[in-house]
Amino acid sequence: MPKTPERCQEIREETRKKILHDAMLYFARNGFAGTKINDLANYIGIGQGTLYIYFKSKEDLFKELFAVCNNDKEIKDMKTLSRLPISAKNKIRKLSKTIIEKLEQDENYAAKVTLTTQVLFEKNDFMSESTTYQSEIYLYTAKIIEQGQKEKTVVDGSSMKLADFYWSVVYLYALKKLFTTKYETITAADLERVLLKDGKEK
């Protein structure tokens, strides 16, 4: 019995979602330069030709993945957090707790963190000036850091460098989740201590 147009559309949407989901994990583990389309298609479980039906090139697929990583709920949540009328110490504690919970519960989150960070390291045509050291996540983190420095609760130094250091620690543990079978993460309190003069709960 032939499939209905509606079912065909559903299959196309399901296939596209699977490609994006599996490609995010594959790129996160192998990097852009280390990913070959044929190997990626085999990992997803589809033919190389099928992959090209949905995305014109490896660059096209990676652009979409990067857009997903940088235009989703995490950025909105960071923006909201940076504007809350609470102390920077509490903002950093909330952020650290959320990050650790996501790393423990969601492999896709670890892949997003890894993929976004890799773009800062790899020089390719899909990158723009704004993606290098100007991620919105970093910028909102830097704002929180600046608030904390005024409140004398956050360590001194360049807010962007400290934001970079904070997310580098997150990146390290995201890699551990993706690459190791015995994944051991840090605690939220450990992550807080990257920025806070006193990261211990009182």
Topology of helices and strands:
Layout: H1 5-30, H2 37-44, H3 48-54, H4 58-70, H5 73-83, H6 88-105, H7 107-121, H8 136-150, H9 159-179, H10 188-192
Low-confidence parts: 125-134
Q: For the residues shown, what is the average pLDDT? A: 82
**How does the helix and strand content classify structurally?**
mainly alpha
Helix content: 55-70%
Cα-based radius of gyration, to the nearest Å: 19 Å
Q: Tally the helices: what do you get?
A: 10
Q: How many strands appear in the DSSP assignment?
A: 0
Largest sheet: none
**Percent in strands:** under 5%
Order of helices and strands: HHHHHHHHHH
Distance between the termini: 66 Å
What best-fitting shape do the alpha-carbon axes yield?
elongated
Question: What do these coordinates show?
Answer:
The protein has helices at residues 5-30, 37-44, 48-54, 58-70, 73-83, 88-105, 107-121, 136-150, 159-179, 188-192. It contains 10 helices and no strands. It is elongated, with a radius of gyration of 19 Å. With 202 residues, the chain is mainly alpha-helical. α1 (5-30) crosses α4 and α7 packs across α9 (159-179). The longest helix has 26 residues, at 5-30.
Question: Which descriptors apply to this entry?
Answer:
mainly alpha, 10 helices, elongated
Give a short summary of the structure.
By secondary structure, the chain is mainly alpha-helical.
